[in-house]
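Example record

One chain of 425 residues, shown exactly as stored in the release files.
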Amino acid sequence: MKHGPGPVYTGAMRLVTGLVCSLLCASVSAEDWPQFRGPGGQGHSSEAGVPLEWSESRNVAWKTRVEGSGWSSPVVANGRVWLTSARENGRSVSLRALAFDVTTGRAAVDTEVFRTSTSAPLHQKNSRASPTPIIDGDRVYVHFGPDGTAALDTTGRVLWTRKLSYEPQHGGGGSPALYRDLLIVNCDGNGDDAYVVALDTRTGQVRWKRDRRRPYAQAYSTPLIIRSADRDLVISAGGFQTAALDPVTGNEVWRISYREGFSNVPRPVFGNGLVFIVTGFNAPLLVAVRPDGRDDVTRTHVAWTLGRGVPFISSPLLAGSQLYYVSDTGVLSAVDSTSGKMLWQQRLGGNYSASPVLADGRIYFQSEEGMTTVIASGPVYKRLATNTLDEPVLASMAVSNGAIFVRGEKSLYKIQESASRAAPF
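Predicted structure tokens for this chain:
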């Protein structure tokens, strides 16, 4: 196996001394970050001691080069950080699954999963490796849009592959979701195929497929699994509509429609008795829906809608009673989640594609220019820190074991408190 250049590393970790500290450390278990937006799929981390401040020369435990291109977000479990990547050679593209050791940053897995061509068009902010992997025990699931979906073991051995037929206008975008033994994928293309599908995680075979209702259009959103009123639901946002599906059968439970809204990217959010949906282009709305309805709930279960500063790409984040979201052009908004009342707006500067993360009572917003603004969670705006890295960032961060993992354009960073840059290996 051929690996890229080694990482930059800080040396041996400091020993934990003292009985009291040992007992405290033993009582805290590291939390994995196994999917897009973390354990619950909504950007929440239960970790404490997460870094507040960093730069290229401060609190970077390691920085390792990632060969190829891609904007899949990092996921973390079992001592490894996983990504996907696309390596182009002329008109041929190798679509790969990559894993790095959490402690050292050294490459541990580098597997070609599919090979394709460069003929399909891409949006300027997209890549051929944008959907984020999912880790579940000893399985890793990777998705490259219509170029293929696959299961691997943790050594990088491919266990099964599946091609899903649809034609997204700007390349693959949305990530899969996991429900029990089902891998659930939104397949929203520009052609005649727009559907949601569930694959058997053991075999890759289709267990159910639910066609979108017409009219439909391309979309790039990730499904969200929720539990409401003693039932599990798959919240699946698509062009001109969002549906709540039974995750076992794929049958539609309820739906809402919106006249404007396609190319949906943000993942839905759920909490405080409401599902929050971003409707997409041309005039994005943030819609709060009560999830206890049946059939068409457009006129009966929409609690509120809001159109100020709504993002096209970044997902919202719910923290307490506040819902936060940042527009593509850097306007950060906080609203009361139950009423939709605007609490405040602040301009952060820069442009935004990554989805925010809540960790240690703070909310982290990453700009495309490599700047992360950290604010206190709460009803009043309080900026705590502004941090910069040298690379563009479109992928969302991961948080695990007190560390933050950031994928830049060329590198993967591990950011950890009290870390300092050392010489390369």
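Notes: The radius of gyration is 21 Å.
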